[in-house]
Amino acid sequence: MSAALPLLLLLLSPGKKPAREQGEAELKFGIDVAKKGLWSEARFRFERAATLTPDSAQAQNNLAVSLEQQGDFKGARAAYDKAIKLKPGDVYIQQNYDLFREADDKRNRKAKKKPAAPTP
Q1: Chain centroid to CA 96
Q2: Structural domain contains residue 11
Q3: Pick from 72, 48, 67, 70: nearest CA to 59
Q4: What helix, strand, coil percent values describe the chain, rounded to 5?
Q5: Model pTM?
Q6: Mean pLDDT: which of 4-8, 14-18, 51-55, 105-109 is highest?
Q7: CB 41 within 8 A of CB 63
Q8: Residue at 67 is within a domain
Q9: Considering the domain boundaries, does residue 13 fall inside one?
Q10: In this structure, are residues 23 and 59 in contact, taking their beta carbons and an 8 Å threshold?
Q11: Residue 39 sits in a domain of what CATH number?
Q12: How many domains are there within the chain?
């Protein structure tokens, strides 16, 4: 009888949410804080969502947006690439990536055109 009690308690006790459910909660929270412009918190939440649900194109896309907002363009490009691989043909992700790529390419061209600072 004593061996059955721990098993019964285990079955009845509320455990951790499954990873997918936790990931979706992190994603939702990240979206909420991103709408308020809290990009550091959003990035943290999207990183957690991407870790908990590595097959989520939405988590990768939102992570890419938050990285872009924080100026991590290399990281944003990698996250967009992963999102597109996870869900090829998704119009929303492709639009975000195309806009990002256009702006990033423009930034890179400007950086290459800047003359070197004169040395004293």
Answers
A1: 13
A2: no
A3: 48
A4: 75, 0, 25
A5: 0.78
A6: 51-55
A7: no
A8: yes
A9: no
A10: yes
A11: 1.25.40.10
A12: 1
User: Longest Cα pair distance anywhere in the chain, in angstroms?
Assistant: 85
Cα–Cα distance, 83 to 93 (Å, whole number): 7
For residue 33, the 8-state DSSP code is H
The pLDDT assigned to 87 comes to 97
Distance CA 59, CA 49 (A): 6
Helix or strand (DSSP H, E) at 16: none
Structural tokens at position 58: 């939405």
Question: What range does the domain containing 59 cover?
Answer: 19-110
Tracing tokens 């939405």 back to the chain, one arrives at 58
CB 48 within 8 A of CB 60: no
Does some domain include residue 47? yes
Identity of residue 98: D
pLDDT of 17: 77
12 versus 116: which is more confidently predicted?
116
